[in-house]
Design a protein that fits this description.
37% helix, 6 helices, 4 strands, 19% strand, alpha+beta
Length: 151
């Protein structure tokens, strides 16, 4: 599927606020509500739009720490880790990466004790490095039309 300028504009609207009505999006991009709905449906069908999510405040839900944790797996321990990590409720995002470490995780934790317990579970799989997040400088930056980046 070709993503034209109008589809990029629709994607931009949805990335800023996925709860916008088709009529509101239509006013912003110059289309009727049914035309917007048709384009959104096509982008969903092609897998360009993969879902709609709510943003939840980790601090207001009882978590005081957010951290980036890297893991350099011990020989033979990567596959067991990959099977186990999906059970960890603390893990928001987990990436398998290249370089010295194998894994990067974004996690939320209640406090330092919870962090210690989480690290204790991880160290059976490999060497762990923890980086406490102090603040977000950029979060959920929208994906933009590559052609408009160079203008």
């Amino acid at each position: 599927m070709q993503i034209d300028t109008t589809n990029w504009n629709i994607l931009e609207c949805l990335q800023q606020n996925a709860r916008l009505s088709n009529a509101e999006i239509g006013r912003k991009v110059g289309l009727s509500s049914p035309a917007v709905a048709e384009r959104i449906k096509k982008m969903e069908d092609f897998g360009i739009l993969q879902g709609y999510k709510a943003e939840v405040s980790y601090t207001k839900t009882g978590y005081q720490l957010k951290a980036i944790i890297t893991l350099r797996a011990f020989m033979g321990r990567l596959k067991p880790f990959l099977l186990k990590v999906s059970e960890s409720r603390e893990v928001l995002n987990c990436y398998r990466i290249t370089g010295n470490e194998n894994i990067v995780m974004e996690v939320v934790l209640r406090d330092q004790i919870h962090l210690q317990e989480f690290i204790d579970r991880l160290i059976t799989y490999g060497e762990v490095k923890t980086h406490i997040i102090l603040s977000n400088l950029i979060e959920n930056n929208p994906i933009v039309n590559e052609k408009t980046l160079n203008q």
